[in-house]
Design a protein that fits this description.
single chain, flat
């Protein structure tokens, strides 16, 4: 009911905002439209260029990995973007449907068995012949400016305007900075594809190179020769860990001990969060606890996979305190 009631309430709040500031309707609407359009177009177009650039350096096409990472990142942002505003609104006094039992998108006929009511609020029932939104009210001199089921305090209305207008607009402007500095232009992308084709065919797309076999190609972005990774079992295992981890733990035994201690810490934190949420019963605590649990559900298998990799045969070929891939 909270989610179904929020959309019409937010629409009513934004409608009231633009009714008070009509001069902002066209420019703000245009900016929102441009921002949303670019949000649908730019990320996938940039990701496609990045996939081609990664193929130049790795020698393999990894579209699946990149698109899964993109999807997961979008899901993480949607989780945080959906939870934090609602928690803040609840703290500011937001009430689903303005404290009403139905109305503003929630059918009174289905919710409380009153098919001829547009809303049912404490001390106020909006009767109509059909009960549908916009139908003429019975026993009322005129249509209210804001339906009771969409009424919220001024503080809540300000927060809704902030989350629907100000913050998205600010984030869109910030995102435009790195998007505008994207080094892979149309010319650079064509050079990347040419370098991939030349390398795979044994031709030359840069300086140097021997006859036959895979030729040396130049990175069109940085102007340096492309160094292909060895992709051996040892080098792939090495990439499971950061350079700082290799430096901090000079032996495989110390690295294993580090991972075991971190796994025990993550599991203990997960158990503590579950116990704390069950004990408190506070809705906000449960919400933030679930967000932290989602992070732990990523960290636990991540460290578990890395610990398992250290028990494989490739681990024996790693030199202690290694800081560069073998």
């Amino acid at each position: 009911r909270t989610q179904s009631g929020f959309s019409p309430i937010s629409g009513a709040v934004l409608g009231a905002f633009f009714a008070q500031h009509p001069v902002l309707l066209v420019p703000v609407g245009a900016l929102i439209g441009v921002g949303q359009a670019l949000g649908f177009v730019l990320p996938d177009a940039m990701l496609a260029d990045i996939i081609d650039y990664a193929e130049l350096h790795s020698g393999s096409r990894d579209e699946g990995m990149y698109t899964v990472i993109e999807t997961n990142l979008q899901q993480f942002v949607e989780i945080a973007g959906g939870v934090f505003p609602m928690v803040l609104l609840a703290g500011a006094g937001y009430e689903p449907l303005g404290g009403c039992s139905c109305g503003c998108g929630v059918s009174c006929g289905r919710a409380i068995g009153m098919p001829y009511a547009r809303w049912h609020c404490p001390g106020d029932v909006g009767y109509s012949c059909t009960g549908k939104g916009g139908s003429e009210l019975l026993f009322a001199p005129e249509e209210p400016a804001v339906a009771p089921c969409a009424a919220q305090s001024e503080h809540v209305q300000s927060l809704i305007s902030l989350f629907f207008l100000a913050i998205p607009g600010l984030l869109a402007l910030i995102a435009a900075i790195p998007a505008g500095k994207m080094p892979i232009t149309a010319r650079v992308h064509a050079a990347i594809l040419a370098a991939i084709a030349a390398r795979d065919s044994g031709g030359d797309a840069g300086e140097g190179g021997d006859a036959g076999g895979e030729r040396e190609v130049i990175d069109p972005v940085y102007g340096e020769p492309v160094q292909r990774p060895p992709n051996t079992a040892a080098s792939l295992l090495h990439e499971h860990f950061s350079p700082s981890e290799w430096q901090s733990f000079p032996t495989l035994g110390s690295l294993r001990a580090f991972l075991v201690s971190r796994l025990l810490l993550w599991v203990a934190l997960a158990a503590a969060l579950v116990a704390g949420m069950a004990y408190s019963g506070v809705e906000a605590a449960v919400t933030f606890g679930c967000l932290l649990l989602s992070a732990l559900f990523i960290l636990i298998p991540w460290d578990g996979v890395r610990l398992y990799a250290l028990s494989g045969p490739a681990a024996s070929s790693l030199v202690p305190a290694r800081t560069a891939p073998p």
